[in-house]
């Protein structure tokens, strides 16, 4: 990988393509895995945004998704289970000019890594988190994960899981993440849009991606991705636009107090003027949206599953506050002396 692509091209800027972000490593995911799509869209978006490989880093934990750094022609680190946030924020503090992406999964990020992810969100480092959610432990052969639905039958829960699942969007909102969004592996156009907006955000961006595990949890999200069912089971969030869905946008969501209700826009009693207008800056409504979580295949009149940006806001980034604090302390106290700090101010003599 070149450390100065422009100079190697005689000083002329180099226009990169998605293949320039792909390594020569064999991609070792199961054929048909949704991870392939996510990998391709990330490579495409980085090229489209004009990112430079030597200024970009991918850090992951453990799991199928965490193989990601091997397949990106950037800097990268395959770290340890659940601890990718620690490596990512340490790197961001050491070199704040790097574009840092953290790759995790529902098992890695929300089980052993849940505590670390929480503190990453509240501190608001300027980096991007992509969480691949397939509602299963794929790498360890199909055990239920923190996001698996109740009564899920797996190798580790032959009589059905009795755990209540984690809601990743609600988790991120509850820990004060400043950018919270959801997309899916099979809607490549929407996924690329969300990746670009996540990168644009100043602060920690969190993007949950529904990802099909065709070996151990095939079809978990087909209700939201298949052409026949997608119009009635999904709703795409657009800032300033009414919440509409259906094959012909004939359905909408209105708020009755704080309770969302589905209305038929073919009914003369309702129009788009009566609908909920999405506001990315409204935390309360984002939290309501995060609870649109009924199973559309088993629940009658289920609310559609939202995709897009639930919430985003501006807040100072941790590393900026840290460097400002250091500068302020240095200005008033002068440069520090490590030897003096280690020696301390208290001394004694033993006779």
Written account of the structure:
- The chain folds into 2 domains: 5-237 and 279-319, Thiamin diphosphate (ThDP)-binding fold, Pyr/PP domains (Rossmann fold), CATH 3.40.50; 242-277, no CATH class.
- The protein has helices at 5-8, 35-48, 84-94, 106-112, 114-123, 168-174, 188-200, 222-225, 230-233, 283-289, 318-333, 338-343, and strands at 56-60, 75-78, 99-105, 128-133, 179-184, 205-210, 234-236, 244-245, 251-256, 259-264, 305-312.
- The strands form 2 sheets. An 8-stranded mixed sheet has the order 2-1-3-4-6-5-11-7, sandwiched between helices. A 3-stranded antiparallel sheet has the order 8-9-10.
- The protein is of the alpha/beta class and 351 residues long.
Helix content class: 25-40%
Which architecture of the largest domain would the CATH scheme give at its second level? 3-Layer(aba) Sandwich
Q: What is the straight-line distance between the termini?
A: 62 Å
SS field, number of helical segments = 12
Query: In CATH, what is the homologous superfamily of the largest domain?
Result: Thiamin diphosphate (ThDP)-binding fold, Pyr/PP domains
Beta-strand proportion: 15-25%
Radius of gyration: 23 Å
Structural domains: how many: 2
Number of strands: 11
Low-pLDDT residue intervals, each spanning 5 or more residues: none
- The CATH class of the largest domain is identified as Alpha Beta
Quick one: overall form? globular
Assembly state: single chain
Structural class: alpha/beta
User: Mean of the pLDDT scores?
Assistant: 94
**The CATH topology of the largest domain, please?**
Rossmann fold
Topology order in helix (H) and strand (E) letters: HHEEHEHHEHEHEHHEEEEHEHH
**Biggest sheet, strands in spatial order?**
2-1-3-4-6-5-11-7
Give a short account of the largest sheet: 8 strands, mixed
